[in-house]
Structures are given as C-alpha cells and as structure tokens.
Amino acid sequence: MGGFQFTLAGARLEAWGSGALFWPDQRLLCVSDLHLGKSDRMLRRGGLMLPPYEVRDTLFRLEADIVMSKAETVVCLGDSFDDLEAQNALREDELLWLNRLQAGRRWIWIEGNHDPAPLNLSGTHLATLPIPPLTFRHIPLDRDSGEVAGHFHPKIHINLKGRYFAKPCFLLDTNRVVLPAYGTFTGGLKTQSPVLMDLMRPEAVAIVTGKTPRVIAMPRAMQT
C-alpha cells in the first residue's frame, strides 16, 4: 500500500489511500466512522434508500487493509455503527466476518456520538485511547496535541475549471490528524466549513484519498 508518510508528535504514520491510518512501529491500523448499518437505519426511519451491501463493502475493504498491514492492533475510531440498533441488525454472516477479522489481534472500539453505549461485541471498549505520544478519540479537542480523531468526515470540495470535485481526505497539522470516514455511503463535511477552519491550524494540509494519496494545502473559504 503506497501511503503518505508523515510524523505527528514524533510518531511515524502513514495515511493510506483507502482512508485508513497505519502506525508501523505499533503494527496498528486505525479507521474511523465505519457507520455499519447505515442503509438499515435509513430504511427504518423512512429516509433515502441506500444499496443494502454497504456493510459487506466496508468489511471487504477493511479486511484488505488488515491483511496488507499485518496489523496486530485495530482501532475503530468511533461511529463504527450508524446507531445502536444497527449492530443488532447485522446479518449472521456479517457478524461472523467481523469476528473473523478480530481473531488473533487486539481490537479497540472507541466510543462515538452515534454509538455511545458499550457494544455487544468482543474487543475493548474505550472513550479515549492514549498510546504515547498519540491520543485516539472520536471528536477532536482544540487543546490537544498528538491527537488522532475522526467525527467530521472531511472532504475536499474544489471547482477545477468548472468541474465540481469532492473526495474524502485526511486533515493534518502540527497538532493532529483527522481521518476521513471509512464506511461506504458516508457523507462528508467540506474543509471550508467554519468548524474545520477553526479546528485546523493555518499550516494544515489535506491528504486526498485514492489509489495514490495526494497532499495539498487545506482548501479554505476565501477571506474577506
């Protein structure tokens, strides 16, 4: 996997084109905002119908990244399920698939705002995971440095010669990295949004996902 290598608080990390973050020295793979069961939740609430294969597609990509990384630890950085009912709606074959991915490795579920209660699944359940010099949590905090977070589903929204371009991205500055949503059919918050412009320092860059990750200055709204 050809990832973009960078250092955060002294830790050497790789942002992968899939949206996963890899910490080679710890053999740790981190993914954020899987939102498993999103299509089921939308159906239950009478919303827009989504194709029913989003869980399988997300697990397929996650398995590929686990195999590629040979990860000994997997951190799911919150909002792993689209709501608390979604985990109970998983099909038996999907649960077996997830259990197989967990087997033989440390698996950590970080608490998110969509799945705040303990999950009825194996693994360790935490609100925050400190592995110095980094801290893993779902929602970033302004004051922290060495932070690995998710929650915002950042996407770049750029107009290139009249063509609209939107793609998930990592956001990186000297304090933190914010991961894109890993799950299939998840939406996104554009980097020009006030909350992300306030959170990320002026030197922030966007690492655009895809076959070959690209690094650009974080797109921001025009200042007046």
Question: What descriptors fit this protein?
Answer:
224 residues, alpha/beta, Purple Acid Phosphatase, chain A, domain 2, 9-stranded mixed β-sheet, 7-stranded mixed β-sheet, 5 helices
Give an overview of the whole structure.
This protein has 224 residues and is α/β, with parallel strands linked by helices. It has a single domain, classed as 4-Layer Sandwich (Purple Acid Phosphatase, chain A, domain 2), CATH 3.60.21. Helix content is 20%, strand content 31%. It is built from five helices and 16 strands. The strands form two sheets. Strands 8, 9, 10, 11, 12, 13, 14, 15 and 16 form a nine-stranded mixed sheet that branches. Helix 2 packs parallel to helix 4 (92-102). The longest helix is centred in the N-terminal third of the chain and has 16 residues, at 54-69. The protein is globular and about 45 Å long. The mean pLDDT is 87.
Short précis:
This protein is of the alpha/beta class. It has helices at residues 38-44, 54-69, 84-88, 92-102, 194-199; strands at 4-8, 11-15, 21-23, 28-31, 73-76, 106-110, 124-126, 128-131, 134-137, 147-149, 154-160, 163-172, 176-178, 189-190, 205-208, 214-217. It has a single domain, classed as Purple Acid Phosphatase, chain A, domain 2 (4-Layer Sandwich).
